[in-house]
Amino acid sequence: MVSINHYLVLATFMFLCGTLGVLFRRNLLLVLMSIELMLNSVNLVFVSGSRLLGNLDGQVMVFFIITVAACEAGVGLAMVIALFRRYGTVDTNFLRILRG
Amino acid sequence: MNFNIPALTPEFYLTTLPVLSLCVGALIAMLQGVSRRLGGENAVFAVVVLSLAVSLAAAVIYSPAVETSYLNGSYLAGVLARFGQTLILVIALTVVLLFRSTFLHDRFLRGEITALYLMIVTGMLVTVASEDLVTLFVGLELSSIGLYALVGYLNPSRRSQEGAIKYFVLGSFAAALLLFGFALLYVATGSLRLSEISQAAPKLLDHNWVRLGVVFSLVGLSFKLALAPFHLWAPDTYEAAPTGLTALMATTVKAMILVLVARFFAGSLASVYHVWLPALMFAATVSMILGNIMALVQTSLKRMLAYSSIAHSGYMAIAICAIGGGSSSFPIAAVLYYLVGYTIISLGAFGVLMWLENQENDNLILDDITGLAKKHPWAALAMAVFMFSFAGMPPTVGFIGKFFVFNAAITNQLYGLVIIGVIGSSISLFYYLRVIVRMYMVEPVKVAVPLAPVRSLVVTGILAVAVLANLALGTLFPEATMKWMVNTSKEVAASPVKTSATGNISH
User: What is the interface pTM, i.e. ipTM, of the complex?
Assistant: First the structure.
């Protein structure tokens, strides 16, 4: 029997993968993908919670999260393109003017 | 589950007029962005100022006596929401006026930029008025995404691009953490509404998912508030952004998040305060120590003010800690008072910097303002007043603000935090007073790009108002203002939300 805890543990695992990706990846595209992974794990929690509780609020929240994630990806990819045009790479190691 | 489709009453339109006016303004501004004929600098300025002014007037004039929620509990109209909206709108209007009078006016007053700007403000107004995690999240992200874009796009340079990317990555990361917290709270309590979460929370004290949810939400909000150890984006972004935007970020974002924290942690999650209190105390301690120590070694004034803003977040967090599980409204009122004071001081200090800057040098260092008192005595005097208030010297609003915050903390036996706060303030004296010493007591040094500010009536007016408000709140009306703040924060402490006829949920 698959219980709510299984979903929560899976979502937490996905969330951790995303967190580690944001913290340790140096490629901006991979960082963006890791953030998406984190948001999708949140969606999983909301959907399974909604199913468990028989309450549609969670599903509504998921729609909003998907929309906002798309907006974020739009702005983020614009930044990736701007970075690529300037440095010819999307490696975040090139971002080192601001220090201290 | 069936929703009653709410009938939209005139009352509803009156309460949401601040938000609606900004939405209309943003749409018009977007049209101005694509039309050369409509999008002249003056036309754009007129639209942005008009929509902000209508919005501000609506927020000030119409305020329901009882806290009422609309649209199935998504939009909350009450005294605290009104307070947050008014404060944010005043700041936004001031920043537009400052932009108009500085070298960035032709970059800022373009349709696509002001459209983004108005949407950022809309997002903030929605956030402070939200009673539902959905609206809260959408408003928060509306303001954040606009800010990510504006930081990099308003005055593109290598520096601002880097600042924007750092802000974007850490901001979205914080949003994901916050959402994960919300999701766990939803699973545990079965509701996305703050009032229902607060009813369900006490029963779930020892539920591990609830604890995790509370901690994740706190971490997400600490990121946005730039509390250490989640402050890493703040100095870089504050330094990289055009100074007007830095002023906006330092003040409105803090206002928005603090109203939210007061409502969410002190209101809804007050019954599980033993989960978030230690974490917040830790964050406050680290912010006060680290912010003040790092500010000591900065030469860039914007970066110094960024670290000082981290320290000030720490002071405000002390008062949030003082709320704890109690139902006293004094600590919340202390936070709001501190927030008003901090807003006045920051707008003033950043306003002086904006006035002095030019296209070649938009990141002033200490050498640039050395000997300023000889060339621009009034600007130096204003800056000196703001530095004194940042440091918390009497008779300024900074002193009274710190007094109330520490008072609230002592009443609630948080002696450790107060001691650290006092130590932090005394460290901060050094770098604030250094600015004054450099302006008044040191001969000017030769710099690469000499400052040549143009006299502007608007900037002079704003700075004069900021100085006078600062001194007036510090000497004449601290008590009256505090009474007003206590009234404002009463509804959080009491917090029975009345659901209006225009929307209730039946399961």
Answer: 0.96
